[in-house]
Amino acid sequence: MADSESGGWVSLFSGGKDSSWALYRALEAGLSVSRLLTIHPSPGSYLYHVPATRLAGLAAESIGLPLVEIDAGDLDADDPAVAADAGTQGDRELEALEAALREMNAETPIEGVIAGAIESEFQTSRIEGMCDRLDIGLFAPLWRREPRDLAPAMCDAGLEIRVLQVAARGLDASWLGRTLDREAFEELEALNEAYGVHVMGEGGEFETLVTDGPHMSRRIELESETEWDGTRGRVRITDAWLGETSGS
Question: How far is CA 83 from the centre of its chain?
Fold first, then answer.
């Protein structure tokens, strides 16, 4: 953890597998992580993880780090022209994040940002540019790593990863709520060969929530309902709370 007189590192955190793994790797590497920062994006966000970001508070409590939450607003509603151009929308979405980090940095200089990007140039180039403008570091331990190496590493470390949303050929309703263990990732590799499904869901094929892990003191418990329209679906969470102790 960070020294109280230092701004430390700020971990961009959605509660999904990639940001959770990046945070875990940062803690494992001994980085002085001072807080988590969650962006609540508009539903059509190109830049941020969308599902269940409101559960980040439970995760932060279990992890034992303070959480800063930022509402990025509904860019589609504010400016219809923005929605037509992914690059413009991505730049606008970054503004809320950069403003929050600039304010933190002004109060107490921060060392850098931790990000969970794997292959997205769209996302990473914007975050790199932001860090350059703020003159802070960037720790991106998943960047350009082989997806087939990342998946088993997450499982072996003890991350409990639940699927919250699917939107790809080959992924049916049975994947909703499923835990991504080694067997599930092997099936995803087969679906990659058959349909081109990205093993880590980098193309938006699926979205996840980490409900337990070695960096968490208590498991996130869920009550939910499944919504499926025949080609895509989601887990609608009706209640969530922290269990007594983590199983990791």
Answer: 22
Helices (H), 64-144: 75-78, 80-83, 86-107, 121-134
pTM (2 decimals)?
A: 0.86
**9-139 shares its CATH topology with 147-242:** no
CATH class of 147-242: alpha beta
Most confident range (mean pLDDT) of 44-48, 92-96, 112-116 is 112-116
Confidence of residue 244 (pLDDT cuts 50, 70, 90): confident
Q: What is the pLDDT of residue 82?
A: 47
Q: How far apart are CA 100 and CA 95, in angstroms?
A: 9
Q: pLDDT digits over 17-41, tens only?
A: 999 999 999 999 999 999 999 988 7
Does the domain at 9-139 match CATH 3.40.50.620? Answer given as yes
Give the residue extent of every domain in the chain: 9-139, 147-242
